[in-house]
Amino acid sequence: MAGQLDQLIKPGIGRGLLDVYGDRFLLKLLVRKEIKVRYRGSVLGLLWSYVKPLVQFLIYFVALGIFLNLQRGTPNYAIYLFAGIVLVNFFTESLSNATRSIVDNRDLIRKIYLPRELFPVATVWVSAAHFFPQLVVLIGACLLVGWTPSVIQLAAVILIFMMVAVLATGLGLMFGAMNVYFRDSENIVEMIVMVVTWASPVLYVWSMVERVMGPWYWIYQLNPMTVAVEVFHWAFWEPTLTTSQAVSDAMPPDLLTVWLPVSVLITLAVLFLGQLTFRRLAAHFAQEL
Asked: If phi over 0 gives left and psi between -120 and 50 gives alpha, with beta otherwise, what is residue 69?
């Protein structure tokens, strides 16, 4: 009873992401609502999950793979490119939509109280619904060129998906809350989305960055999305290679033993900071909206 009275006295203050877990049914409803609203009046519907990344892949492959001839030094460059695009698109879509989620649901937030974290988390789930069809296409393409992953590589794919989802959730909570008070947050996120594709080895191989940055290459590796894309390449692209030299260059040194654990810790720190920021700002969402 005291807990219920406390919620009435302090609206918007709860247990954070723990409330999202407790209200899983509401989360499912929000996810369904987001998908229906997004594709309302659309002829293709969820097929856009295939069309958009396919067009993006073709543009990059023609411009970089053919015109700049990057495919010459990168065996199975199409697999390499698409693996990175699929993962980065999941992150950028999750972050962009999570940043707008509170403002976009202003009418619902003003009328009733429910855990505010539900809205950013729901957008990440919707992005995951778009990610899995693309992942199926990636796996099919890999199988056509002889993909033979190990159990560790398959486990790494699951870990990376979870890490990127948590990273997008943490940043989405932070920028989603800030966007209620400062609409410039959307512009900041747009710049992050624009940079992240080029700041990760999606279109180029990691060794190019190492040659340029030299002893400062470790700064590049501090970006969790850089490590996530590298592990994705190791899991999907590396098992399709045949030449020993290409296989030896497929994974940066200490990727799994050093940089992956560091990225997981950074991701958890981002989630903690995002949740902390969200909780401090959420109490006055209804008034600000």
From this structure: left
